[in-house]
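Go through this chain.

——
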Amino acid sequence: MKEQTSIPKHKLGRAASLAGAGVKVGVNYLRYKGTKVLTGKDEKDKFHERTAADTYKTFSKLKGGPLKLAQMLSMDKNMIPAQYSDEFSKAQYSAPPLSYPLVVKTFQREVGKSPTEIFDTFTNKAAAGASIGQVHKATKDGKTYAVKVQYPGVADSLHSDLAIVKPIAMKLFQLKAKAIDPYMQEVESKLIEETDYDLELRRSMDLAEKSSQLPLTRFPQYYPEFSSNKILTMEWVDGLQLDKYAESDAPQEEKNKIAQALWDFYAHQIHTLKVFHADPHPGNFIVKDGELWVLDFGCVKEIGDEFYEGYFRLMEPEVSQDNEKLRPALYDLSLLLEEDDEASIKKLLEIFGESITLLNKPYRAGVFDFGDNAFFEQLAAFGERTRNDKELLAINSARGKTDTLYLNRTFFGVFNLMGMLKATVDTSKEVEHRFEKVC
């Protein structure tokens, strides 16, 4: 993969790049409509493929907010066409890396030394690159380290980038502001946190310690003495990224054990700690010697007791299947609003009732086979139907507390990882953990 020698930092330069991406979307759309008029062929798939590639190319060069948005959207397969989720999934861990001289500049600015003045060896080329930073392999005194170096200028251009990306994304995915605004707000708020490697270091060490008793689940050691606000150093872990492991010839029985470890990891953090790793994409997990290693606590979400009780009240069948009980529960979570008329309420009760039933399906099974594609086909069909439901699109206002967005994204992200592993897991522990008190 070709390295980047610079990242556009100034607002005008970044705005020009993003505007160029918008123009390409428009040109591709005109080409698509022209072909349809002239030939009668609806080549929407080709339009999406071409546009997804063009957009990702621009976002990956700019890093930061645009690339983070691509990463997040790639995880929500119910929100965008498959061509975009497939292309944008590259943002999870394979974005084009920055050249070594830029890495050296970051070290000199942060700690006053070059990487080779601190470590015995330090790779010139990045081992992995994503939206916020890239990872280099280093050694010192016989130990091997993973050193994450933040891209320059990510935080400074955050707000202006997202303001320009928003209309492009709305046009691209035929979304209204109410649908994409929560994503924009989440990207901005979490990016501010993710650019603070001091915060990530503290969270990583704390959550690893509080989850250390989980079977088959491991965490790298972190090294504050080799870290700063823009540099984060941890133990190097060899192994297979979760998606590569899923494609491997490892026995399904072993894959089921890895999936169970992952399931229990999230159950423990959500239901016991109420603080959880909110970025469940395969690049954040490695499998080594039959154990699951959890990496990168940059995106972490904490939920309060009141929200927790309200959210999981929806999961109880006597609530989700009874509109008289479901209605006040949805008001409590701002999924129904005081200004909604009765027609809107009726439609939303129907949609939320169906989505809760789908979300709850694995939890109520006791043992669930994520290798059965029927479940994911149901999810995809529901997403497609709601995206194109004119009655639903006509209902105004963004809905739901931000915490709801985080939890939903995390749950469906975990489902996708389970499906990737084609795993059968014991989900009964989910119910047991649900009402445990925080230690």
